[in-house]
């Protein structure tokens, strides 16, 4: 049993699978395209919303340090992703990496986890985009008909038609082709980054030094603010992290981590990159550096413009400009946020379809979904299926409480990838690696520790929901995946760490 559950797929076989005509994706992306994808998906809801939340409830002006802490945790993971993506340039990201290093069952678990992460992430952002659009329409004198607006906080029956429509339009774009997706993303990212730079430059002239006092609040900034203390830590260790002071920075980091979700999506496009060995590390690390720098600068500016205790939770950047007597900037920022969230949605949907496609090509999901479109060379079947399902999810479901599942799913993937780097270095030292994670195993171990620390800062309810989804995944694997995988049917070569090879 153990030999079948932990059978690994050779890296060489994974690469050969990408050359099968019916299952081969078109290679059209450059390092610039990958960096734009990374920036496009990272800069989104986090920078426009979370800054106010964590500054008011946890870290005050030290929110900048929370972004740095979350960025460091992502940087450690990014180094591991960069090695894997350049060594195994195959669609599927952490799923494919796990199959080559940890085995089939761990690969299935991480693939199942990524499907949830990207699906919920896409739906959450689509609902957020809908809210921005509805706000802009109301400012122009238009109001959405009853029952067709945002479902957030609504008890009555309704359908968020804007959120669903966005997902369906992006689905069509992804089916048509990656190069078209890259061009649209480049245009939207240019608008989004321009908005962020305007916030930084214009806001810098409105900073008042007194707003930075105290820089690290020693007591709870807002008594009425919702506590982000983790019941899980209380349960495991008998103590709870402070949601103010120095510990408040780390608690805030576990929340603003949502703002960084998506850089790992870049790795899912490895198979569609012209020169993945060179360009994947550049795209992954470059996009993370750019976004972390922008996040830190924005948080410094916004907490300098307005005292952290007075920041808005819903739209901190826009409302900070209103509070300082510059309402025009508020409308400009809302427009940039609405436009920018479209790329976040599209790239998260892109990541999910590529993971689903890779799992299907390996036989863990029906092979029907692994055939590419004869003209566009895109995985159109899983793209259409998942696009429709997520559109329905975004339309009907208020997703605020489920958003934390996106965080835990991403962090779990980071842990698996970091462990996989160590294992593959030991089991396959002969593999050509155009990028090597420095200081192995120190960097991967630090990545695991940082990710686990952020995970245990999440609410216990999130862990329960995550466990339920994982249990469902085990059921699907043992009922279908284990017997239908290509390794199980002898359609692909395998290597098992214990036996050294042979078909199971």
Protein model, in words:
The radius of gyration is 22 Å and the shape is globular. The longest helix has 36 residues, at 104-139. It has 19 helices and 2 strands. It has helices at 2-5, 11-17, 31-42, 45-59, 63-87, 94-101, 104-139, 161-176, 178-204, 231-237, 245-256, 265-268, 276-305, 316-323, 327-361, 380-396, 403-427, 442-456, 460-484; strands spanning 8-9, 494-495. It has a two-stranded antiparallel ribbon. The model is unreliable at 151-155, 221-242 and 496-504 (pLDDT under 50). The termini are close together. It is mainly α and 504 residues long.
Blueprint of the fold:
Layout: H1 2-5, E1 8-9, H2 11-17, H3 31-42, H4 45-59, H5 63-87, H6 94-101, H7 104-139, H8 161-176, H9 178-204, H10 231-237, H11 245-256, H12 265-268, H13 276-305, H14 316-323, H15 327-361, H16 380-396, H17 403-427, H18 442-456, H19 460-484, E2 494-495
Antiparallel strand pairs: 1-2
Q: What's the short story on this structure?
A:
With 504 residues, this protein is mainly α. It is built from 19 helices and two strands.
User: Mean pLDDT, nearest integer?
Assistant: 83
**Strands of the largest sheet, in order across it?**
1-2
Q: What gross morphology would you assign? A: globular
Secondary structure tally, helices: 19
Secondary-structure-based class equals mainly alpha
Rg calculated over all Cα atoms: 22 Å
Largest sheet: 2 strands, antiparallel
Q: Percent range for helical residues?
A: 55-70%
Q: For the terminal residues, how far apart are their CA atoms?
A: 9 Å
Low-confidence stretches: 151-155, 221-242, 496-504
Q: From N to C, what is the helix and strand string? A: HEHHHHHHHHHHHHHHHHHHE
Instruction: Say how many strands there are.
Output: 2
β-strand amount: under 5%
């Amino acid at each position: 049993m153990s030999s079948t559950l932990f059978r690994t797929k050779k890296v060489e076989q994974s690469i050969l699978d990408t050359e099968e005509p019916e299952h081969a994706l078109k290679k059209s992306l450059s390092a610039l395209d990958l960096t734009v994808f990374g920036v496009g998906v990272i800069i989104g809801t986090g920078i426009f919303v979370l800054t106010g939340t964590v500054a008011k409830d946890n870290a005050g002006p030290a929110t900048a340090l929370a972004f740095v802490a979350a960025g460091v945790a992502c940087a450690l993971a990014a180094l591991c992703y960069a090695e894997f993506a350049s060594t195994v340039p195959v669609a599927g990201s952490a799923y494919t990496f796990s199959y080559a290093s940890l085995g089939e069952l761990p690969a299935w678990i991480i693939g199942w986890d990524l499907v949830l992460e990207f699906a919920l992430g896409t739906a959450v952002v689509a609902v957020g985009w809908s809210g921005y659009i509805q706000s802009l329409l109301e400012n122009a004198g238009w109001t959405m008909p009853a029952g067709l607006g945002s479902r957030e906080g609504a008890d009555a029956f309704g359908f968020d038609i804007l959120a669903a429509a966005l997902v369906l339009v992006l689905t069509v774009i992804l089916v048509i082709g990656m190069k078209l997706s890259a061009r649209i993303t480049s245009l939207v990212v240019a608008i989004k980054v321009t908005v962020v730079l305007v916030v930084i430059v214009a806001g810098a002239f409105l900073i008042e030094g007194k707003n930075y006092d105290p820089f690290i609040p020693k007591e709870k900034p807002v008594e009425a603010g919702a506590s982000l203390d983790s019941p899980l830590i209380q349960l495991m260790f008998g103590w709870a992290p402070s949601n103010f002071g120095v510990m408040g920075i780390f608690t805030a980091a576990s929340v603003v981590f949502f703002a960084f979700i998506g850089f790992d999506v870049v790795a899912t496009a490895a198979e569609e990159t012209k020169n993945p060995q060179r360009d994947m590390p550049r795209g992954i690390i470059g996009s993370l550096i750019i976004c972390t720098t922008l996040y830190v600068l924005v948080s410094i500016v916004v907490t300098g413009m307005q005292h952290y205790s007075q920041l808005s939770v819903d739209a901190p950047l826009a409302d900070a400009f209103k509070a300082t007597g510059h309402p025009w900037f508020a409308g400009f920022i809302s427009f940039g946020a609405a436009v920018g969230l479209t790329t976040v949605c599209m790239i998260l949907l892109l990541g999910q379809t590529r993971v689903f496609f890779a799992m299907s090509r390996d036989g863990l999901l029906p092979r029907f979904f692994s055939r590419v479109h004869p003209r566009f060379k895109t995985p159109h079947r899983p793209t259409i299926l998942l696009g429709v399902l997520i559109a329905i999810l975004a339309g009907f479901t208020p997703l605020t409480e489920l958003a934390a599942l996106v965080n835990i799913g991403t962090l779990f993937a980071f842990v698996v990838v970091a462990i996989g780097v160590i294992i593959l270095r030991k089991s396959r030292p002969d593999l050509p690696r155009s990028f090597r994670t420095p200081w192995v195993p120190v960097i991967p171990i630090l990545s695991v520790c940082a990710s686990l620390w952020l995970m245990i800062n999440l609410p216990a309810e999130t862990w329960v929901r995550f466990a339920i989804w994982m249990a469902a995944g085990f059921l699907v694997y043992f009922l279908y995946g284990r017997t239908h995988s290509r390794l199980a049917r002898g359609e692909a070569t395998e290597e098992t760490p214990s036996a050294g090879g042979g078909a199971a």
